[in-house]
Amino acid sequence: MTTRATRSPRRRTVIALAVVLAVLAGFIVRLVDIQVVNADVNMAQAQSYSLGATRTLYGTRGSIVDETGQTLAGSILQYDAQLSPSNAANYQRTDADGKQVAVPLSDIAAQIGAVTGQTAADVEKIVTDALAADPNSQFAYLKKGISTAEYRALADLGLPFIYFDQHPARTYTDGAVAGNLVGFMGTDATPLAGLEMMQNSCLASTDGSASYEKGKDGVMIPGTEQQNPAVDGGTLKLTINRDLQWYLQQLIGQQTQDMGALRGTITVVEVATGKIRAAAEYPSVDPNNVDAAEPQNRYSHIFSDTFEPGSTFKGLTASTVLDAGGQTVNSTVTVSGAEQFANGARVYDSFQHPAYNYTLAGVLIDSSNAGISRFSETVSTQTRYDYLQRFGIGSGSAVGFEGESKGLVVPPDQWDNQQTYNTSFGQGLTTTVPELVGAYDAIANGGTRMPLSLVESCTKADGTVITPTLPAPQPVMSADTSAQVRTMLENVALQASYADQVAVPGYRIATKTGTGEKSDGNGHYKVGVYFTTMIGFAPADDPQYIVAVTLDEPTKVTSSSANAPAFQKAMTQVLKTYRVMPSTTQPTLLPKFG
């Protein structure tokens, strides 16, 4: 028997189920109405509110690092601050009573400007100009390239109509260290100089993109974003040692100023590999602040400048007459301080002296122009020219640096009477620092010239390592000739007037200087103006590193002895940096006279 008590719960259950079914039926009817009956109308309305948008996904430009992986050039994040003008103009906040209160644009603009460095009027103008062009505007740039600190400060304001697009920007961690080599970027992120431009194929990134739909309020509609990912640039590893480069830049800066020179350079090359371990210059450029450097100081003079090498070429001529002219270190010629030759040419030494019976070693020790000219007669002019080509003079270097120059040596059939002899001691022709260092590498490296290199590798974003293709080593002279020239150059370091200035305690050093005259551009030489060079290697008995120091127009000391202090300090630092063991053998002293 069913009682009233048992009927009541059942009735309530039936009623509740009926209500649920009625609500569900209502939803179904409404869903059919939206998705079927009025689908076209609703879709058109939704599309009128939603806006398609695309943003760039920036790839990161690759880093430039030294031989140890220390960063010379890298990328940091900067941000482009954007805003929705229509939302900024109608911005409301909830007050203490929970009411929505309109916030004047001028108040917001002042807060924003305090972060970005803009005036309130500047910020207001961005909004009003955008709304004047489009009353429903959802986009305008607030400020491009803001720092991370500015980004965080703007985000902390909690303004929902400000949003950010991040992208990488270039930075140079150590400023001017290797600045002349690394180069710099333009404000539009275009590489403009140095390795940044030369190696752009390694360093450049590929930007991607993200497309999405956003609603009327400018907010992205979830689930609508599609991405084409960016690809980062590769890491460019150099042969340069950052710490050594820094030290040598300080050193050459000081020496250039002390000697009152226009500019100076120090170049260091590893003998066995031809790798450039330092290429220091003064003046230099800080890629973070390019405008602070004069235009002529924004590139590498080591690679771009040509000069008459002067007596440094006596080492090349000595190599030639030893290798092809049947001479020895003890072969002799008799010359005075001024010599006239059969073709009418006259050659003068830098000091007055009577007729000396010079050995070949003595000619190098005293740097006798007349003596090396006499020795040059033991081979033909064509042979001398051929050896200069084998030494790499006039061919540039394997580095192929941006703006790199080549020396000029005209064929011997174009030499006049004076040039026939002057070329034996570095006049009447030109060279570059890389060419000169490469030639001395042949002397130091057993007679084989190694191609110079500045780039170790490029490691792509996917891990692929690409190493540069270099020319084959160039045989120049026999190993025996190389050994004899090394011994003579060591005797120069031991017996020349500047011997005490270049000595490095514990190490056997080989050197040669050059004082090259400078053209006035009108077929004559400037009076009392020189380009001075000192080049050498150590240890002389087992050469590991070559150091070359140049000064352009020194005025305090105008001879190549102006380079000696910097050479000694540079060589000392190089041997320390690479932990080269001191010499354990004694040098062979050679006589100057026969």
TrEMBL record:
One of its GO terms (biological process) is cell wall organization. GO terms for cellular component: plasma membrane. Transmembrane segments: none annotated. It comes from the Bacteria. GO terms for molecular function: penicillin binding. Residues 264-571 form the Penicillin-binding protein transpeptidase domain. It is found in: Membrane. Residues 58-188 form the Penicillin-binding protein dimerisation domain. Keywords: Membrane. Belongs to the transpeptidase family. This is Penicillin-binding protein 2. It comes from Microbacterium rhizomatis. The lineage of its organism: Bacteria, Bacillati, Actinomycetota, Actinomycetes, Micrococcales.
